[in-house]
Amino acid sequence: MDTPLQSSPLQSARSPIGSALSIMDRYIARELTMPFLFGVGAFSSIGISIGALFDLIRRVTESGLSFGLALQIFALKLPEFVVLSFPMSTLLATMMTYSRLAGDSELIALRGCGVSVRRIIAPAVVLSLVVTGLTFAFNELITPAANYQAAVTLERALNSERPPFQERNILYQEFQPASDNKDEQELRRLFYARRFDGETMYGLTILDFSQRGLSQVVSADSATWDFGRNQWNFYNGTIYAVSPDGSFGHIVRFDNQELQLPRAPLDLASRTKSDTEMNIAEATRHLRDVVSKGGDERQIRTWETRIQQKYALPFVCVVFGLVGASIGVRPQRTSRATSFGVSVVIIFGYYLLAFICNALGEVGVLSPLMAAWLPTLLGLAIGVQLMLQASR
């Protein structure tokens, strides 16, 4: 009696259908795992080498940065590049896995069992959703704090000329809608301090135009922010009330005066985090309390775009997973090197489009929402179209 040929894991999972689908999911998930981990390692290594490692080596050799601190900063910068590799690794994993399954005729066997292309691609979509959640968690909980700590550690280690706060000439402008034209902005308040030591501001002059028909000038030797009461304490100063005709209507001299002015000048003078060092809540608060009150429309659009990108970036994993799987299930024999090359081309094209949309958002051609989400929406539409074509 002849011994039957040993079947593949997919071919042996034909009956019953419910069990077969469960085995198929586990099998494809296992096949996706190793290329994904390979992609995370490869793309993270390339990114951190270009973005951090070479600069740290230069700091060690030229600026006297200790090797131990260099390793600490390297470890702190690593999450930023790991999370950037997640979408790219998802694309690489889906392309390599489904191309191999197609090349080995395992997809033909599955389709012969009546399994649709959409059902075959489902494990890739689930993986993409899981990686999307992981990306969002990294970007909110780990990466911003690690980036900030890395920047502070490097500055302290090198005794950077840039202190953790602005020492001199703190100038803050707050705007409000113009009285005669709500679409235009006019100066509401100007806050100037000659010097700041990290806690106390010295040599202050505040021009206040917030009250219609009355302007005030506040001059003080020093001022501190009361964190408990959320107000400014001014010391040794004078308040001048200026009438519309330019005359001084009222003059008050004080030793200590509490004034309800915005905290924004203190935030401006303190070390300001970059957008990569903030999570969504911090960036939104910075936009509301500091950037928006400054009245710079270009800067406001830039921060609004950055915040929307923090929402949109994790969903690139879904786009890349769908595109990679839809390309991979096509009946063709593709080597791993070819899959890697095609992945790089798709990644370059996507991020080039994202860069262009970001620039258009900053100059006002696109809204911040559209600038951040347009590449993702276009990629998702292309992925769905590719899947529909592969299903025919």
Care to describe what's here?
- By secondary structure, the protein is an alpha+beta fold.
- It folds into two domains: 17-160 and 314-391, no CATH class; 168-268, no CATH class.
- Helices cover 59% and strands 18% of the residues.
- It has helices at 17-62, 67-103, 106-112, 117-157, 264-269, 280-294, 297-312, 316-328, 336-363, 368-391; strands at residues 168-177, 185-196, 200-211, 214-226, 231-242, 248-259.
N-to-C SSE series? HHHHEEEEEEHHHHHH
Shape, principal axes of CA atoms: elongated
N-to-C CA distance = 42 Å
Give the strand tally.
6
Helicity range of the residues?
55-70%
Count the DSSP helices.
10
Radius of gyration over C-alpha positions, nearest whole angstrom: 29 Å
The overall pLDDT, averaged over residues, is 82
Q: How many domains, as an integer? A: 2
Strand content: 15-25%
Classify the oligomer: single chain
Weakly predicted, low-confidence segments: 1-20
- By secondary-structure content and strand pairing, the structural class works out as alpha+beta
Biggest sheet descriptor: 6 strands, antiparallel
Strand order of the largest sheet: 1-2-3-4-5-6
